[in-house]
Amino acid sequence: MLLHIIADYGQGDLAFAEVIQRLQKSLPGVQPVLTNVPPFATLAAGFCIAQLALNEPAEGMIIYHNVAPRGDDTQPDDAGTGAGTGERLAFARLPNGVRVVGVHSGHSLSFIRDTAEELRWVNMDESKSQFRSRDVFPKAVAAIASGNREPLGDEIARSEIPPIPQNSVAYVDGYGNLKTTIPLEQSVTAGTTISQSHFNDVPGHTISVRIGQVKKTVVTGDASFDVKPGQMILAPGSSGWTVPKGNGIQYHIRWMELFFRSGNAWEEFGRPPIGASIEITEDL
């Protein structure tokens, strides 16, 4: 069984090793694959969940995600156990059969909120461990992966899951490309909407893009390599997925990407954090 693990503790970290050890003890033969995101970056986790879950998944595949800022309770632990209750564990089942189990925090479920056929809380032992990822979660994940529905609790109202934030940095890949929450169908400027067809009709259209305090001149195009080395482009990226919309209708979405040819877009924009707002204006 292929088990994707999306977490903000990286491969080579002791935490990752301990979690894998517990998962394989509870689920012998599992094939774990880690995708690392920055600390507390729930938006990046949500983006990765959808990208992996909705694109030709392996049979029986399950995704376990754990990015838990533990921002649900700001009070100190009066009991002195060193354990924080933290955000609750959630379960989602997608139309293609992929099961997703993980902490319901921030935007971790935003990208699959409207696609999931089932959204439920996971009942589990809220042990007094400060390392729930090792001591509590693996048993619940293993039970669900084995087909046991006993841990599944009440339905989660979709209104409890925040929508995808518009015009934000969603993920930074190893080349420094900025994957955004700007969909292929439209790119929102300050007060104006430029449709994707407009990008296609006017190759090389120039816009200004501001992220934080950094503003850059960017070319629009149909593909990342439509610019010369040393130029920045906003173009449809490699991430996206197709989801059913009912009545046999399929909806395909691709996310726009900021790409700096022969360079690193993340560095050029001053290393913006996940969730940073992207402001786009036309250069007239």
Notes on the structure:
This protein is 17% helix and 34% strand. The chain is an alpha+beta fold and 284 residues long. It has two domains: 2-160, S-adenosyl-l-methionine hydroxide adenosyltransferase, N-terminal (Rossmann fold), CATH 3.40.50; 169-282, Beta Barrel (Elongation Factor Tu (Ef-tu), domain 3). The protein has a seven-stranded mixed β-sheet, with helices on both faces. It has a seven-stranded mixed β-sheet with strand order 8-9-15-14-13-12-16. β8 (169-172) and β9 form a beta hairpin. α1 (14-26) packs across α4 (137-145). The radius of gyration is 20 Å and the shape is globular. Residues 72-84 and 186-201 have low confidence and may be disordered.
Integer count of domains: 2
Number of strands: 16
**Terminal CA distance:** 54 Å
Q: How big is the Rg?
A: 20 Å
Indicate the low-confidence ranges by residue numbers.
Answer: 72-84, 186-201
Percent helix range = 10-25%
Structural class: alpha+beta
Strand order of the largest sheet: 2-1-3-5-4-6-7
Top CATH class of the largest domain: Alpha Beta
How is the main sheet built?
7 strands, mixed
Shape: globular
Spell the H/E element sequence.
EHEHEEEEHHEEEEEHEEEEHE
- Give the CATH H-level superfamily of the largest domain: S-adenosyl-l-methionine hydroxide adenosyltransferase, N-terminal
Q: What is the CATH topology classification name of the largest domain?
A: Rossmann fold
Compute the average pLDDT.
85
Strand portion: 25-35%
**Count of helical segments?**
6
CATH arch. level architecture of the largest domain: 3-Layer(aba) Sandwich
